[in-house]
Amino acid sequence: MSTGLDRGASAPSPAPTTTPATTPAGSPVVSRMRRFGPTIFAEMSALAVRTGAVNLGQGFPDSDGPASILDDAVTAIRSGHNQYPPGIGVPALLEAVAEHQHRFYGLPLDPTTEVLVTAGATEAVAASLLALCEPGDEVVVLEPTYDSYAAVIALAGAVQRSVPLLPGPDGFVLDRDGLRSAFSERTRVVLLNTPHNPTGAVLSAEEVAAVAALAVEFDAVVVTDEVYEHLVFDGRAHVPVATLPGMADRTLTVSSAGKTFSVTGWKVGWVSGPAPLVAAVRTVKQFLTYVNAGPFQPAVAAALALPDSFYSELAGDLQRRRDLLVAGLRSAGFAVSVPAGTYFVVADPRPLGHSDGTALCRELPHLAGVVGVPVSAFCEPGSVAAQAVEPLVRFTFCKSDAVLEEACDRLQALRSR
Ligand SMILES: *Cc1c(COP(=O)(O)O)cnc(C)c1O
Q1: Which of 3, 129, 212, 267 is most deeply packed, by most CB within 10 A?
Q2: Confidence at 279, pLDDT banded by 50, 70, 90
Q3: Per the omega criterion (within 30 degrees of 0), is the bond before 195 cis?
Q4: How far is the CA of 264 from the centre of ligand 1 (A)?
Q5: Which atom number of ligand 1 is nearest to the Cα of residue 123?
């Protein structure tokens, strides 16, 4: 399978140092996109198919979401919701997003002016940056970085300034010195992501507050990608940036149905925030996709209103699968810190004698019949973050118990070598 979240064959990540993934010489693509050629993700998925390895590289669930959301989509198709929906999204979904933000976080939103439906979180992030950044403006991101961010920053002609998220004994933490030095008078946007892909980190309240304080000091807009808002574990609560004092006025909050309802192919996302910022995003969004997912929008609206038990069972079920994979990786000899959120776990293979995550990912299908992705593929080549994560491999646990158990069994082969 080569479709799904990391968008397989087309995932535009910076190249790992060992494969300069620039586009071929003579490519007609514009110069600012030239460094986004095919990457390790495409290579790893192809490798999984070729070798019959268990693919824990790509983060998409192998089961469907709740039956009700599927039924509601079928009903919507059968009952004529098949033409262009309104540009900002169907009213039921706009209202459901506003209601969701109020129910879970106490955030009041006017559904008619403060919410915009997008083609997934991906378009929400892209349209936000294209709407807000003049060429040369700076965008602060956490590195490792979700793979679409660098490409969109480049498309906007903006400049990426990275704050390293560094691996520590209890998981990944923000490099506080790096945080301040990433800001300047050119900072226009802070593009945050918590819970964080690929590290599984959930920023602490202090970390979020530190970022917020700098956004205020440098008068930047915060665009916050919270697609894993409901995938936090061990009783933790997700704290949206917009709930911090003074932040609602300068924050665009992005989320999507893909991760919460296990329907990543539907590409229903949304962005919410103050009306002038949402209007700016809409100005760009209307010329990217205009609209999408007509019959899926009412289905997602109904799903957002599912009872709290749906949300807690989702997190509880994934937490159980997280624990299954963490235990399997540890018994295979990896050092693993337990992720606080998302559906990714980062494993350190140095106790097994491997110190190059990219090289290990290429060998792993042959050594153990499993595929993961090197965390360095989410970094700018040679950066502080890239060096810190060089040995590390990301595996997903959003797969069935049977698939996870098979992967864990296979990984035990590493021990005996
Ligand atoms: C999966 C993912 C997305 C993409 O969401 P879509 O709704 O499919 O566009 C965006 N951001 C992060 C961090 C993700 O992991």
Answers
A1: 129
A2: very high
A3: yes
A4: 8
A5: 9
As a whole-number percent, the residues of the chain with pLDDT over 70 amount to: 94
- Cβ atoms of 162 and 181 within 8 Å: the answer is no
pLDDT reported for residue 15:
37
- CA of 264, closest atom in ligand 1: 8
Q: What is the reported pLDDT for 38?
A: 75
Among all chains, which residue has been given the structure tokens 């990433």? 182
Q: Residue 259 forms beta bridges with which residues?
A: none
pLDDT of residue 6: 38
Are 124 and 268 spatial neighbours (Cβ–Cβ below 8 Å)? no
Nearest of 281, 257, 276, 252 to residue 267 by alpha carbon: 257
Q: Is the pTM of this model over 0.85?
A: yes
**CB of residue 201 inside a 6 A radius of ligand 1:** no
Element (H, E) at 149: helix 147-155
Q: What's residue 215's pLDDT?
A: 98
Ligand 1 centroid – CA 227 distance (Å): 6
- Beta 221-225 vs 251-256: how paired, if at all? parallel
Distance 317 CA to ligand 1 centre (A): 20
Cα 261 to averaged position of ligand 1 atoms, centre (Å): 13
Token pair, residue 417, equals 């070598």
* Res 72 pLDDT > 60: yes
Q: Per-residue pLDDT tens for 132-145?
A: 999 999 999 999 99
